[in-house]
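$ ./design --mode recover --in tokens.txt
reading tokens...
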């Protein structure tokens, strides 16, 4: 199919299209194919220690069989692989200096097919080139052999050095530290130090913790390092060299620093010839004060792209010293310019010139000449405008500008640019990005279709090569000129680029980075932290981090994509993996969502994928900014107008603004600037005097250019004086104070002008001058750009010098007159511990009894951070001693509401800051403020509308044309955000909460500008937020209030009633009854009732079945209001309800005949009798009641009772035999009912526990008594049961019984016997009755007097018992009367006891007897006493006694002996 190609691919005169020819295209394809081989070959080079690759990769591979995959490098590294600089390749010919190619690059190009093709097309003399190449190869081979030999010798030396114990690795050490110096100005000074360490430390010098770069200050600093001795030389010291210097030594084992100070003294008198002269230079400036004047100035200039422009001024310096040269600096938009091919600077002795060799729109801006002498500096500024060159094709757009390279990596870079101001009537369709390899002149187009976004990722770069980029714009009419080329950027790893910073070497156009020795055969892990960094409708950019493993063989990456909602992953770069951890994806479907993931790969294989990204929708994430606001032009000069405008709202990544002007009624718009400006104020020059112009403004960001703002009012171009200006410049600020002072800077603050000129103040300008001996010098500008805050740090001052300051305010109308000079302030560093004064005090929300005071914290913090503020108050006309505190406790806020003011009184306020060291100096007092509520004052009103939206509303009746409502949270201005929207209509403003939550708690205030202080605040506390949210919910979702939620209850006969009650419902109310999401209706199973008067809604079911398990819901509706209440009856809940319903149903039928009202139970009387009883109902005379135990009927004589409907069975003394199952049966002709009571096992145990409880409660208090064996504790109970369990405790521990401590029961007495008590037995005793619950304890304290009394009684009883037991006793054996025949022998024996052994005495007729032959008296073994009469005669008749006696007592035994004569007895018988 033959079709016309897009016009932007057609030939254009200004565009390099040589590579589009067939011949060159073929050559380039051959070059690209062969260059990959050359690149692969180049990887075969590798070295260790100090490296220098200056020969081709092909030859090197033949000479040195080193491992593959390494890369040639121009980086010089030390023994520890630390980069220390570049190595200049050998055999550099004149052609290299002309082309910028290195030998390696030249050899690579010459040996490639591309070079052959190009040579055939464009050059001749092949044989000469070959011979030159051959000679170079020979020399390179010889050089390589020398380097290889030197390397081996060096490695051998290093090996032996490491084997020496004295040279083992250790951290750096300072053998000699640098010494501090004090020198005069313009002298030279050198700091020395000696450092040891292995590996050899790298020493870096710092000035006030900022690294010293000799290249940045040529001739100023000189660094030397030789044999571990390191030095820093500072040439021609000036006062700014006074600082602390640090030498930092670092190696792989650690880092160490040493410090030294340099103090530079300045000679203040006349020139002293005896002073040492500087080392360099021919002019001595001591004691001279220079006066500088800039004359013959360049004015506002206009140029066109491609032209050359010179800017110059004549500089007069007095006094004129021969060959004295001041420091001349040129700035563009406050950025210091350096000499380059675009900027040439020249100083002829009295004239400073800046030449712009080839104008581009990047050169547009405010140019400033600054002439610096030791006495100060003078500046002059003027604007330079650069217009677009005439288009090659009519209607083609202007060229883009400010092309920059960002985020450069191994094979990837992002190119950004700014859109041109003009499109010449046809909107720009997009942009083409071209690249050019450094050292060549061939530009290659990077994108096939134009991109509209002013940012484009360029991929496919060759690692190690450097590139420049340019951009072209295209519209329907044609292609623009290309932009100015960007600065060169190297395609290399950012880490390698960072290591190279600070190294110096000639720029060779190519950088090849050497990696560490790779670990072969290891598959890499997962990439980390994958994310989408940029997404537009043309492309998506991914970024990630390499896997954590170090030293892996060359890692590359595969990128995979997946459409959201599917699991199909597609590899994007199937053929060529990428090297950089960045990747741009094109050709994605706009509007679709994708997820992405990345895999690592190397020669060992492909690793696991990373975690996928979140779904990303293809489309522009950055919106084109909104149109700027109101545009206000103001007269300035006969040829210029000042244009001011309101910034675009919610603009993201804003680049700047373009301003366009048009003569009224011409309808032709011309750009006023061709380079975006960042401010909201611009002076449009080059206008026609007397003409009337209107202006409009457009905002710019990477997404595009916004719509035009509304046209401004027309303004006539003429000088501003006497022209009827709509706004006036503000009056001077006042009240200049110092907030902080250091050695060379002071922070100033001032108060806002009393009159702002009818327009908002846009900024302030500060001037300063030195005061010497009371004589002020010349004013100097402190800031070129205006500052919006009423505080500014003035830098570059001299220590211990005195200064005065003045401030000017600016608004749309211009810059006002300066304030009167301030007091004279001494520039000396503050060292006080307490903080400085707060500043910028403002008063708002003035009422009759309160106001709000705002302030800013002090700039000078003191020794510690500020941790609070104190506010002071006094009446305006009161004496200074009348100041008093408002807050006793310091507040950490920068605002406070002051209450309890007296209406009509005028007050002033001040604030003091405190830190840990104390309270600092007070701020300047505020202006006097009267506590008075002004008429018409409104307050913020909170409102919740019918949709539940919460808003804060403020109304002001005193609005002016320029008034604005400013909303703040905690007195910090808020704009529309994700949390609030702001809306202003007329004199009302509304702040609406989008999604109120805890993050919105705070103080909200609204201030109306350009009024007499109209303001108000509202505190949204946590409780207030909760209240408002409840109201909001009620408004959003109105509900019918319920008195009771849906409940269920059982009625007679087991009926189930579901019911609820609405608090209020109209006659139109409706109810739907829902069961398990199905609507149910009135029928046989369900009975519904809805009483609208009482709001009671009920549904009754006769019974429940298993099919009724589920959720019952009553849904109410009354107009818009709704409500519902549900009851879930499932699981155990439903089963219990169903069981209870069935029970109630059975109970109803049961109670139709004789039945038990109360089932059989028991009670225990205080006498421990157990009574079984039950209550019956619906009985009659014929009703019989039968008792059973274990199935055996209990007869009536067994304590049965039946009175007043209660059946009773009494068990007097319950025991185990009474355990069993008791049953009562009621029956008559209507039916019968049964009640059982199980008194076995646990039932009997529970009964006995109740009995035990009664017994325990009947117990008497524990008492103490004594026995002859010890002390006894006891208590009495009313009734004792053998099953009763008691536990005796001593000191809260159960007593372990033994022979000494025993317990027992006697009748109803329970006792504890302690035998032979001692003091160890003193303490608290308790008896615990176990009743199965908590039990009952009776306690007694056996201690003190109670123990003493009991122990004494025990001792007495024990002694009495001992005496009774051991006293002398006649145990028995003696008869009362002995009748014996005369002549017989009488022998009586009795037992004697006693301890000690008693004394035995025999008596006859109360006379003591002695043992003889007739009476034999014996006492044997201490136990047996015998009485023997050998031959009884009548004289032996009589009364005999035995008397025993020991120390415990005496006892006697008596008997009577009667002797008879047998004959007498016989005669009597006869």
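writing sequence...
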């Amino acid at each position: 199919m033959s079709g016309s190609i897009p016009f932007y691919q057609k030939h254009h005169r200004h565009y390099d299209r040589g590579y589009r020819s067939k011949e060159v295209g073929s050559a380039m394809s051959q070059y690209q194919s062969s260059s990959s081989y050359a690149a692969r070959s180049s990887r075969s080079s590798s070295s260790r220690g100090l490296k220098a690759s200056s020969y081709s990769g092909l030859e090197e591979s033949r000479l040195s069989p080193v491992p593959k995959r390494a890369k040639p490098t121009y980086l010089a590294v030390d023994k520890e692989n630390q980069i220390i600089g570049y190595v200049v390749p050998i055999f550099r010919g004149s052609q290299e200096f002309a082309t910028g190619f290195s030998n390696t690059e030249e050899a690579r190009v010459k040996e490639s097919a591309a070079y052959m093709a190009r040579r055939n097309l464009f050059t001749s003399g092949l044989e000469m080139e070959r011979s030159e190449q051959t000679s170079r190869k020979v020399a390179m081979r010889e050089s390589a052999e020398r380097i290889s030999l030197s390397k081996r010798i060096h490695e051998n030396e290093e090996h032996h050095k490491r084997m020496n114990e004295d040279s083992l690795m250790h951290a750096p050490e300072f053998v000699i530290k640098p010494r501090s110096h004090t020198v005069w100005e313009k002298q030279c000074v050198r700091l020395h130090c000696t450092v040891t360490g292995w590996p050899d430390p790298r020493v870096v010098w710092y000035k006030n913790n900022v690294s010293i770069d000799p290249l940045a200050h040529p001739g100023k600093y000189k660094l030397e390092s030789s044999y571990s001795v390191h030095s820093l030389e500072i040439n021609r010291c000036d006062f700014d060299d006074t600082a602390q210097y640090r030498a930092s030594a670092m190696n792989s084992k650690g880092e160490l620093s040493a410090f030294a100070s340099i103090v530079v003294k300045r000679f203040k008198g006349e020139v002293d010839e005896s002073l040492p002269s500087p080392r360099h230079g021919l002019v001595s400036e001591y004691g001279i004060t220079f006066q500088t004047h800039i004359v013959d100035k360049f004015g506002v200039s206009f140029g066109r792209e491609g032209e050359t422009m010179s800017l110059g001024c004549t500089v007069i310096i007095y006094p004129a010293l021969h060959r004295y040269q001041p420091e001349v600096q040129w700035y563009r938009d406050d950025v210091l310019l350096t000499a380059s091919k675009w900027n040439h600077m020249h100083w002829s002795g009295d004239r400073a010139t800046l030449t712009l060799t080839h104008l581009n729109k990047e050169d547009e801006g405010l140019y400033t000449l600054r002439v610096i002498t030791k006495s100060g500096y003078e500046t002059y500024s003027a604007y330079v405008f650069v217009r677009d060159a005439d288009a090659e094709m009519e209607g083609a757009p202007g060229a883009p500008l400010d092309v920059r390279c960002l985020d450069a990596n191994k094979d990837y870079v992002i190119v950004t640019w700014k859109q041109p101001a003009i499109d010449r009537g046809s909107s720009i369709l997009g942009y083409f990005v071209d690249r050019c390899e450094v050292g060549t002149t061939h530009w290659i187009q990077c994108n096939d279709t134009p991109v509209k976004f002013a940012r484009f990722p360029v991929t496919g770069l060759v690692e190690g090569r450097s590139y420049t980029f340019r951009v072209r714009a295209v519209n329907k009419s044609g292609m623009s000129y290309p932009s100015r080329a960007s600065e060169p950027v190297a395609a290399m790893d950012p880490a390698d680029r960072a290591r190279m910073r600070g190294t110096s070497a000639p720029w060779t156009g190519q950088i090849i980075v050497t990696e560490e020795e790779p670990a072969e055969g290891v598959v890499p892990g997962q990439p980390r932290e994958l994310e989408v960094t940029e997404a537009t409708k043309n492309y998506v950019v991914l970024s990630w981090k390499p896997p954590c493993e170090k030293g892996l063989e060359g890692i590359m990456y595969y990128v995979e994509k997946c459409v959201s909602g599917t699991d199909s992953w597609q590899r994007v770069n199937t053929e060529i993996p990428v090297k950089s951890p960045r990747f741009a994806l094109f050709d994605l479907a706009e509007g679709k969502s994708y997820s992405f993931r990345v895999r690592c790969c190397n020669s060992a294989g492909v690793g696991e994928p990373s975690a996928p990204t979140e779904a990303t929708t293809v489309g522009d994430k950055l919106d084109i900014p909104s149109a700027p606001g109101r545009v206000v032009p103001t007269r300035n000069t006969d040829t210029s107008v000042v244009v001011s405008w309101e910034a675009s709202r919610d603009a993201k990544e804003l680049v700047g603004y373009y301003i366009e002007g048009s003569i009224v009624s011409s309808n032709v718009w011309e750009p006023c600037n061709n380079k975006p400006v960042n401010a909201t104020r611009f002076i449009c020059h080059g206008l026609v005097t007397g003409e009337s112009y209107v202006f409009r403004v457009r905002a710019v960001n990477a997404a595009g250019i916004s719509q035009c703002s509304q046209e401004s009012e027309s303004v006539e171009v003429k000088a501003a004086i006497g022209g009827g200006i709509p706004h006036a410049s503000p009056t001077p600020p006042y009240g200049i104070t110092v907030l902080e002072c250091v050695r060379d800077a002071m922070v100033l603050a001032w108060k806002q002008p009393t009159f702002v000129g009818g327009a908002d103040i846009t900024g302030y300008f500060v001037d300063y001058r030195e005061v010497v001996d009371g004589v002020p010098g010349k004013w100097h500008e402190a800031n070129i750009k205006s500052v919006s805050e009423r505080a500014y740090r003035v830098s570059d001052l001299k220590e211990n010098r005195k200064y005065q300051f003045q401030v000017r305010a600016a608004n749309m109308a211009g810059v006002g007159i300066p304030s009167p000079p301030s007091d004279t302030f001494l520039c000396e560093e503050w060292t006080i511990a307490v903080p400085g004064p707060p500043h910028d005090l403002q008063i708002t929300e003035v009422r009759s009894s309160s106001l709000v005071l705002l302030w800013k914290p002090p700039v000078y913090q003191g020794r510690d951070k500020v941790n609070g503020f104190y506010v002071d108050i006094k009446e305006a006309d009161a004496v200074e001693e009348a100041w008093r505190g408002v807050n006793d406790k310091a507040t950490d806020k920068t605002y406070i509401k002051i209450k309890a003011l007296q209406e009509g009184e005028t007050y002033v306020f001040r604030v003091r800051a405190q830190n840990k060291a104390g309270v600092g100096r007070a701020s300047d007092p505020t202006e006097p403020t009267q506590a008075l509520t002004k008429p018409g004052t409104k307050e913020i009103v909170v409102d919740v509308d019918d949709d539940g939206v919460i808003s804060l509303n403020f109304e002001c009746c005193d609005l002016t044309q320029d008034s604005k409502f400013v909303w703040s949270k905690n007195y910090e201005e808020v704009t529309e955000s994700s949390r609030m929207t702001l809306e202003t209509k007329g004199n009302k403003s509304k702040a609406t909460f989008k999604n109120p939550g805890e993050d919105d708690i705070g103080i909200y205030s609204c201030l109306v500008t350009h009024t007499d202080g109209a303001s108000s605040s509202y505190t949204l506390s946590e409780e207030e937020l909760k209240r408002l949210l409840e109201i909001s919910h009620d408004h959003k979702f109105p509900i019918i209030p319920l008195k009771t939620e849906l409940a269920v209850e059982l009625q007679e006969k087991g009926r189930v009633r579901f019911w609820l009650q609405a608090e209020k419902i109209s006659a139109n109310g409706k109810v739907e009854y829902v069961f398990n999401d199905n609507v149910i209706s009135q029928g046989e199973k369900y009975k519904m009732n809805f009483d609208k008067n009482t709001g009671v809604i009920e549904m009754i079911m006769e019974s429940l079945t298993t099919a009724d398990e589920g959720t019952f819901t009553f849904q109410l509706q009354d107009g818009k209001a709704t409500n519902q209440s549900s009851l879930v009856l499932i699981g155990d809940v439903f089963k219990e309800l169903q069981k209870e319903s069935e029970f109630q149903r059975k109970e109803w039928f049961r109670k139709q005949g004789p039945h038990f009202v109360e089932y059989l139970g028991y009670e225990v009387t205080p006498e421990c009798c157990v009574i079984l009883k039950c209550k019956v109902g619906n009985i009659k005379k014929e009703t019989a009641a039968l008792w059973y135990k274990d199935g055996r009927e209990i007869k009536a004589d067994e304590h049965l009772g039946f009175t007043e409907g209660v059946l009773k069975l009494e068990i007097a003394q319950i025991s185990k035999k009474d355990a069993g199952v008791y049953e009562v049966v009621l029956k008559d002709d209507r039916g019968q009912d049964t009640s059982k009571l199980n008194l076995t096992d646990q039932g009997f145990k529970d009964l006995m526990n109740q009995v035990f409880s009664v017994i325990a409660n009947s117990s008497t208090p524990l008492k103490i008594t004594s026995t002859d064996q010890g002390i006894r504790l006891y208590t009495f109970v009313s009734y004792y049961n053998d099953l009763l369990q008691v536990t005796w405790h001593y000191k809260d521990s159960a007593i372990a019984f033994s022979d000494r401590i025993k317990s027992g029961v006697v009748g109803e007495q329970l006792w504890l016997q302690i035998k032979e008590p001692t003091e160890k037995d003193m303490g608290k005793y308790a008896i615990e009755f176990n009743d199965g619950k908590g039990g009952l304890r009776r306690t007694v304290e056996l201690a003190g007097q109670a123990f003493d009394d009991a122990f004494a009684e025990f001792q007495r009883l024990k002694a009495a018992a001992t005496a009774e037991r051991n006293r002398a006793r006649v145990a028995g054996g003696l008869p009362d009367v002995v009748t014996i025949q005369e002549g017989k022998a009488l022998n009586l024996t009795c037992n004697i006891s006693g301890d000690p052994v008693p004394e035995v005495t025999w008596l006859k007729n109360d006379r003591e007897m002695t043992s003889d032959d007739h009476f034999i008296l014996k006492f044997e073994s201490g136990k047996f006493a015998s009485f023997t009469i050998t031959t009884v005669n009548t004289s032996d008749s009589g009364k005999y006694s035995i008397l025993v006696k020991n120390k415990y007592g005496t006892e006697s035994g008596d008997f009577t002996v009667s002797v008879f004569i047998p004959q007498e007895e016989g005669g009597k018988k006869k």
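exit 0
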